[in-house]
Design a protein that fits this description.
- An 8-stranded mixed sheet has the order 5-4-3-2-1-6-8-7, sandwiched between helices. Strands 11-10-9-12-14-13 form a 6-stranded mixed sheet, with helices on both faces.
- The two termini are 17 Å apart.
- The protein has helices at 62-76, 107-115, 124-137, 157-160, 166-171, 181-195, 246-253, 258-267, 270-275, 280-288, 292-316, 326-331, 333-341, 352-356, 383-394; strands at 5-11, 16-21, 28-35, 39-48, 51-59, 85-92, 103-104, 143-147, 201-207, 211-217, 220-224, 321-325, 365-366, 375-378.
- Helices cover 39% and strands 22% of the residues.
- By secondary structure, the protein is α/β, with parallel strands linked by helices.
- It has 2 domains: 5-147, ATPase, nucleotide binding domain (Nucleotidyltransferase, domain 5); 196-383, 2-Layer Sandwich (Nucleotidyltransferase, domain 5), CATH 3.30.420.
- The protein binds adenosine-5'-diphosphate (ADP).
- Adenosine-5'-diphosphate is lined by residues 208-210, 237, 279-281, 326-328, 331-332.
């Protein structure tokens, strides 16, 4: 068998997503999700050939979840012994100052990911559980850690440095690490491939529940909106994005504790906090029904985006390509239109027809007119494929 496949794992604290991918063609042989791990009402969904197989069962730990996933592969295919499984790609949110690229997991890499839990307390510990469990079940295959932050490891010092007391920043390793790097790298690289050149000044907008903007010169990130953590930057589904840090001091003085403020900023703010909904489809619906909270939420969301596009256009010294990706970026024609409309003065001309009629077979979809000075694109992101490709390259 010549085919080689990679098993991509994205392990969260109570969930584990997986895809079995053929990295060259991008074909997904199977994918699925284990949810509510740690409870006796766990659920595992395995999708193969478009067919969904779902089981509900107790899933006390990630090990039972992965074992059940293996059972579902045995029952419904494909046979993991006959798919040319070359190794595992593990998504890791925080690679800190250590990782400029993917790394084969060994004791040293494991220890570094563990050390970085401090910077990503919600994510890295859960990724390690995924790694440990998979390594226990498949000890003879290589396990590759692919970091969300690696694309930003080489951000210029002037964009990665906060204007914070130097010693404090150094002592606690406080800098902009960014996030969504796997997606921005995939999308900006796809744009360069599409244009056949690496010299473009581009902005990629990853607009999902989490959202970030990135300015790239060709394939290299020069600034990004997420910072020490994925809280900074754009308005998101449930996160504030940029906010005066003094709001924290104020709330502390008013009696809230750090955990409460953390939850408020990360889980109860953003679109949800502004209008009560974080799914953009619901927000638009409510705005159409005349809801003033939804209208204001959309205005705040779009204005923040506009600010970042403006800042990055100046940082780049002009703009050649603007690209939308992720759930909202790929599907929300109105958000794209509203934004592009405001960019007319820098030469952006959006084609209404193209914007509203996406051809899903295309990996790059132009929505600007032929004579637009800035090329505006939609490029569906594919983080799992990017992880599989980075893993196979290293293997
Ligand atoms: P994440 O991976 O960060 O959870 P996604 O990239 O899957 O998020 O994006 C999820 C968001 O995409 C949803 O919250 C929803 O607001 C938005 N979305 C999906 N489809 C549409 C659509 N047709 N119109 C507007 N928004 C959409």
């Amino acid at each position: 068998m010549n085919q080689q496949t990679i098993f991509v794992i994205n392990s969260g604290s109570s969930s584990l997503k997986y895809q079995l991918i053929e990295p060259v063609s991008g074909d997904v042989l199977a994918k699925g999700l284990a949810e509510r791990i740690g409870t006796d009402r766990g659920e595992v969904t395995h999708i193969v050939h478009g067919e969904k197989h779902t089981d509900t069962l107790p899933l006390p730990t990630h090990k039972e979840a992965l074992n059940h996933i293996i059972d579902l592969f045995k029952e419904n295919g494909p046979d993991l012994d006959h798919v040319g499984l070359a190794g595992f790609g593990h998504r890791i949110v925080q690679g800190g100052w250590y990782f400029k690229g993917a790394a084969i997991v060994n004791d040293d890499v494991h220890a570094k990911i563990t050390e970085l839990c401090d910077l990503a307390p919600l994510h890295n510990p859960a990724h390690l559980i995924g790694i440990d469990t998979a390594m226990e079940l498949w000890p003879d295959l290589p396990h590759i850690a692919v970091f969300d932050t690696a694309f930003f490891a080489d951000l210029p010092e002037k964009t990665r440095t906060y204007a914070l007391d130097k010693e404090t920043a150094h002592k606690y390793r406080i800098r902009r690490y960014g996030a969504h790097g796997t997606s921005h790298e995939f999308v900006s690289g796809t744009v360069c491939d599409y244009l056949g050149k690496d010299t473009v000044r581009q902005i990629t907008l990853h607009l999902g529940n989490g959202a970030s903007a990135c300015a790239e010169l060709g394939r290299k990130a020069i600034d990004t909106s997420m910072g020490l953590t994925p809280l900074e930057g754009l308005v998101m589904g449930t996160r504030t994005g940029d906010i005066d840090p003094a709001v924290v001091f104020h709330l502390l003085r008013k009696g809230m504790n750090v955990e409460e403020i953390d939850t408020l900023f990360n889980k109860k703010s953003g679109m949800l906090g502004l209008c009560g909904d974080n799914d953009m489809r619901d927000v638009w619906q409510r705005r159409d029904d005349g809801d003033s909270d939804a209208l204001l939420a959309l205005q705040v969301y779009q204005n923040r985006l506009l600010k970042y596009i403006g800042a990055y256009t100046f940082e780049l010294g002009g703009l050649d390509v603007l690209t939308f990706t992720a759930g909202i970026g790929e599907n929300d024609a109105r958000t794209r239109y509203r934004l592009c409309e405001k960019l007319e003065f820098i030469g952006v001309k959006i084609d209404k027809e193209l914007n509203e009629n996406r051809d899903p077979s295309k990996s790059v979809w132009r929505i600007s007119t032929e004579d637009s000075k800035v090329l505006v694109l939609v490029v569906p992101t594919n983080e799992e494929l990017a992880i599989a490709r980075q893993a196979i390259r290293l293997i």
